[in-house]
Hints:
Elements: H1 8-18, H2 26-46, E1 55-59, E2 65-67, H3 68-81, E3 87-92, E4 99-100, E5 110-118, E6 129-137, E7 161-167, E8 171-176, E9 182-187, E10 192-197, E11 208-210, H4 221-232, E12 243-245, H5 250-260, E13 263-266, E14 279-280, H6 281-293, E15 298-300, E16 317-318, E17 320-323, H7 325-340, H8 349-353
Parallel strand pairs: 3-5, 11-12, 11-13
Antiparallel strand pairs: 1-2, 3-4, 5-6, 6-7, 7-8, 8-9, 9-10, 13-17, 14-16, 15-17
1,6-di-O-phosphono-alpha-D-fructofuranose binds at residues 64, 118-121, 212, 248-250, 266, 278-279.
Amino acid sequence: MLCGRTNVNKFLIEEQRRNPALVGDFSMLISDVVRSCKAIAQGVSRGSLAGVLGDEGRDNVQGEAQKKLDVLANQAFIHHCEWGGHLAAMASEEMDDIYPIPADNPRGKYLLVFDPLDGSSNIDVNLSVGSIFSVLRCPENCSGAAPGTDDFLQPGNRQVAAGYALYGPSTMLVLTVGNGTHGLTLDRDIGEFLLTHPNLLISPDTREFAINASNERFWEPPVQRYVSECLAGKTGIRGKDFNMRWVASMVAEVHRILMRGGVFMYPRDSKDLSKPGRLRLMYEANPMAMIVGQAGGLASTGNERILDVQPTSLHQRVPVILGSRDEVERIERYHREHESGEDQPFRSPLFSTRTLFRVD
Ligand code: AFP
C-alpha cells in the first residue's frame, strides 16, 4: 500500500492547524528534531559496527562519564537544528552552558532543551536508550538578540511541545504539542515515522512500580511507606500483588507506563544531600511530565507538581514520581501525611522490619 498511515510531517501540520498559537515554523522545528533522532537511531542500531560504543574519556557537567554516543547524539541535535532559523538557542545535558544559534544563522522564536542520549549507561550492554526534548518559547525580551540562560528558566507548564525517541526493538517517537500524547513508529524502509499510537492514555491505577531498589535505605519515608505496601501485596493494605521493573532508562520506563500503566519513582534520597534527586528538571522531568500529563497521568516531586516547579538553574535536579494518576496522588498524600505527622502507623516497628530484603 503506497499511502495510508499519517507520517510525522502530516501529523505536525494538522496539529499546527488545530493550535494557532504554534506560530509559523513550529512544525519545521519539530521536523529538525525528528531528523536528529533518526540520525541517532542509525548510530545506536549500528553499535560496535560503527565504533560508537564505549567511553568518551571525559565527564559532562553532571560529573558523569560521557559515552561516545552521548557526544555524537549531542552533535546530531546541534547539526540538524542550528541552521533552520526556528531556534534562538539550545541547551543540553551534555553542554555546560546554553548554545546560542551562531550569528551566521537566522534566529527563531523557540528554545530547544534536550537530553541527547538518556540511559546511556545501557548503550554498551545493548539495552534500550532514548532522546528527550522540550520546546519553550523565547521570551519577548530576547527576540532577535542572543538569549541568556535565564531565558530558559521557565516552568514546565510553559512548554510548547515535548517528546522522546525510544531506540528499542522498534524506534518510536512519542510527542505532545499540548493536544494529547501520540506515538509514531519508524518505518526504516521509507525512513519515516508513521502514526501508530494516537491519543495514548495512561490507566489511572496499576500493579507495577519502577524504582532503583538499591537505594532503599536512602529513600524518604513516604516512598519507603509506598514501596513497603506494594511489597506486602495482597497480604497488606493494598490487597493486590505488584510487579517491579527497573530499566535504568527513563525513556523506556515512561514508554512502558504509557503502554500499560505504572508508576516511576526516582525520589529525593539521602545518598547525596547536595542533590535533591537524580533526574534533571529541564530536559528529563519537565518534558516527561508534559507527555505523561497529556496522557491523563501525573508527575510530581512528591510535594509539588513537576510542571509548576520554577527552575533556578539549567541543570538542576528534582525528585520525580510519575505515571498512573491514582498512584501518584497516593504518594503525594503520603508526603502530606509525613509532613503533618499523620503517618504514625507507618512509623511502627512492623514497617521498619519490612524492607525489600527483610520481610519478617
Ligand atoms: P544515564 O543517561 O546517565 O544512564 O542516566 C539515566 C537516568 O538519568 C534515567 O534515564 C534513569 O531512570 C536513571 O538515570 C537511572 O539511574 P540509576 O543508574 O541510578 O538507576
